[in-house]
Amino acid sequence: TNEFYSSTDHMTHLIGIKNDLSQCLRFYISSLENQMDLLKRALQGLECISDDNSKDPEKLISNPLIAYKFVKQLINVGTAIKEITKTNISKDIDMLMSKSQLIPSENNLDGIAGGIVRLQELYRLNPEDMIKLETQSALSPDECFHIAVIAQQNQKFQCAIQWLGETMKKLHDGAKAMVTKQRVQTLLTSIQSQVVNSPFPPEATQILQHYDDLDLKTILQSAYTYNLSENIKYWDGMQHFITSLDMSGFYNPWKNGYEALCRGEGIKMNPKRQRKLVCRYTNGKGSPRLIYGPAKEEEEWDEPLILRYHDFISLNEIEVIKTLSRSKLARAKVSDPVTGKLISTKARVSKSAWLSIDESPVVASINQRIADVTGLDMDTAEELQVANYGIGGQYEPHYDLVDGVPFTERRIATLLVYMSDVDVGGATVFPNTGAALTPKIGSAVIWFNLLKSGEEDTRTLHAACPVFIGSKWVANKWICCGGQEFRRRCALSKAG
Ligand SMILES: O=C(O)CCC(=O)C(=O)O
Ligand SMILES: [Fe+2]
What we know:
Blueprint: H1 8-47, H2 57-62, H3 64-86, H4 90-100, H5 106-122, H6 127-134, H7 141-153, H8 157-172, H9 181-196, H10 202-208, H11 214-226, H12 229-232, H13 239-245, H14 253-262, H15 271-276, E1 279-282, H16 288-291, E2 295-301, E3 306-310, H17 315-326, E4 330-331, E5 334-335, E6 342-343, E7 350-355, H18 361-374, E8 384-389, E9 395-398, E10 411-418, E11 424-425, E12 428-430, E13 435-437, E14 444-448, E15 462-464, E16 467-469, E17 473-480
Helix pairs in contact: 1-3, 1-4, 5-7, 7-8, 8-9
The site of 2-oxoglutaric acid has 9 residues, from strand 15 and strand 17.
EC number: 1.14.11.2
Cofactor: L-ascorbate
Family: Belongs to the P4HA family.
């Protein structure tokens, strides 16, 4: 397909496409230039036939040398014209056309703009930060305006207004553009009315009954509806008021926690708990393969227990897995809560592929290693799911448990292999427990999605933070309930 932005790995193909395109264009231009030269020469030939004597044509021809020259020029022109029709530029055009099929479609640009807006909001980049990023590839007023439009469509009004401001500034500085100040103003007005006319949520109505000031109501309303409360905090004089109202739990309760954790705020670990976390060498449940090469197991989180295995897979294995996946990577989807159909959404911006153990000894050996380390039955596990994230790529908070599957197919545990480091962003966070796991190449983390009682462990709600800089590769192995009856005993207690 022609969607690049949802996988940074696929974005890299664009460099090849760019090189091919410039080569084809170079060929085509030089063919055209040859033709132009021939045409110009032909024209020059015609023009240098002097027609001083045109009033007396016979005189022209009567001088044998002039006559000779005259006919010679005409023949030259004829030759040039024949040559022009002979040079075949249609081949170059065909080539150019076929290469241009690979040019990304417009929705890629929308997707990237959406990623920029998400990163900007989530990592709280203020206008100055954005400008610093922007100076490396100065955006035109039209480009700034496009980002503003996408921000508005994604209901990130704060960002939209910021980009409209940039657009205005550039227009003011006299940059050439299609967009006019008039259009910027129109969009600004429409954003304002969108914010003000948004429907009032019932919980907010109750609270606001106590306040008469209409202006405050308007601001609060937009804060609620568009989850701007975080930003409003920084508005003059609003801080105290907002804190006293505690709007945080209003809208998308998990979302604020998720975004804060992604920024590295609100990680709920304390030194006392931290001291109890240990690391050890382990041979799993006595697997012979681990006796001589024990696994490096680290307790990364206590409640719920999250273990990390260091050097779980090698760089070579990672290369094999990536190569096997590349041709299969397709936009990852989520099931629509209403229709149950698989859809592609901003909530999950990545591409993924499934690898079976028959595909390569490397996949089989990783599968075996997971069995050795966890002591769990792999016969009922799902295939390995490899994922590569895109620009601002993320996966919003979710449970790995899928509704409506037989008990034996429930995902009792998730093992997540990090196949890359990520320069900035891209952590795996657990909003209900305040945990954040940093991707570390070659390591794997594991947690149980079900309590020993078989109930869902709500502490395992987790998310993949937007990748800011870098490429993020992971592999998921979902281990299912079937076959684990004697390996992980059920218990009446809820303890993890
Ligand atoms: O990429 C990550 O950090 C987490 C991925 C994840 O949760 C999933 O694919 O279900
Ligand atoms: Fe997940």
